[in-house]
Amino acid sequence: MKKIIKNIIMIIIAALLVVAAVAVYNFLNNEGVEAGKTLKGECNNIGELTTQEYSCTRVESFEDSREIAGMEIPFTESSCSFSYDSVTKAGIDFSDIDVDVSELTDTIEIKVPKSRIVSCDVDYDSQKIYNEKESIFTPITLKDQNGLMKDYEKAVKKEAKESGLLKKADKNAKKEIEKMIREIPEMEDYEVEFTSV
To answer: What are phi and psi of 128, to 5 degrees?
Structure first.
């Protein structure tokens, strides 16, 4: 009888250990985070003047495979080629503008910061897939996809800068600021001078 009770207690303890191990495994893999819940959110003040945008459609590709001793193993290659439309915007931060008004000389001196890229918006609905081949031995993971999108944004921002986006944004920022000043009746006859900071 004692042996039976001892065996039942051992089975209960083993079952509890299995349940505990499964719970710990699930907690560690899910990091205790419920899907669909916001972990952190806040609104922040910004004072950006977006003055220029660069639109493009860019094609990117990805290839990966398993290797042994530097040699590719057959049938393990995964690859894809895709494109997205995107808009990269540039502008200035209003908090970095310094204005000096001289009533003696009727001049307004404005120190304007150089433009910077303020956003790169990818239109995910515009995705086109040209080639998609996935091996069960080398699946394209969410981490791979995330890396692809980071590389895509980096390439689009570089392309936007090379197209002259920042210079055009600088020029347009000055034009827009002067237009705002000219709308103030007391300032319409003042000479406006810009200095880049």
So the answer is: -125, 130
